[in-house]
């Protein structure tokens, strides 16, 4: 074989080897970058869910909806007082849908009801934040669905036949979902809709449960 041909073959082999090494290095760097992104997502998801479940308003709302009553925790004039879930339809009343009378305004906007509305606003804003994090792939849909499954069933606008968690009354759920839709917490609607627990945005989907094992309202 002429020296020129041998040199050409050697050069071609070296080029191919360099190209292969470059691809390998790119793949390794890409996999490392993916692992880094996954770790960052996992940490972000852990931090957000931890903050969510530790928020005082979230804990107040969850206790109220799950146990049927909760103590006010941050309002100085209300601390130690208990709010009953049976009063939720009045507290979350969409006042501009009712006949605008002075009596209704006074009944809806007592200090107790304003505190409840503020807590629910914060709770729902947290859920909207989580929906955005899921949409942008910071929190996984499956992971959050498993973590929040109890509440998706208990609070869902649309119950399903196999539900065993059903102790929040139809009146309580209806009041919550009327509030969500009237004040356009649309990302909350989308969050529950991801799991088949709400109708689409802009169209009420509330369905009463056929059986209630424990009436709170």
Written description of the protein model:
The protein has helices at residues 3-54, 56-67, 88-91, 102-108, 111-135, 141-147, 149-155, 170-182, 186-194; strands spanning 69-71, 82-84. With 217 residues, the protein is mainly α. It has a two-stranded antiparallel ribbon. The chain is elongated. The termini are far apart. The mean pLDDT is 85.
Mean pLDDT rating: 85
Strand content: under 5%
Determine the number of helices (DSSP H or I, runs of at least 4 residues): 9
Work out the number of β strands.
2
Net shape: elongated
> Which stretches are poorly predicted, pLDDT < 50 over at least 5 residues?
none
Estimate percent helicity.
55-70%
Notable characteristics:
single chain, 217 residues, mainly alpha, two-stranded antiparallel ribbon, 9 helices, 63% helix, elongated
Short description:
This protein is an all-alpha fold and 217 residues long.
Topology record:
Layout (H helix, E strand, L loop, with lengths): L2 H52 L1 H12 L1 E3 L10 E3 L3 H4 L10 H7 L2 H25 L5 H7 L1 H7 L14 H13 L3 H9 L23
Antiparallel strand pairs: 1-2
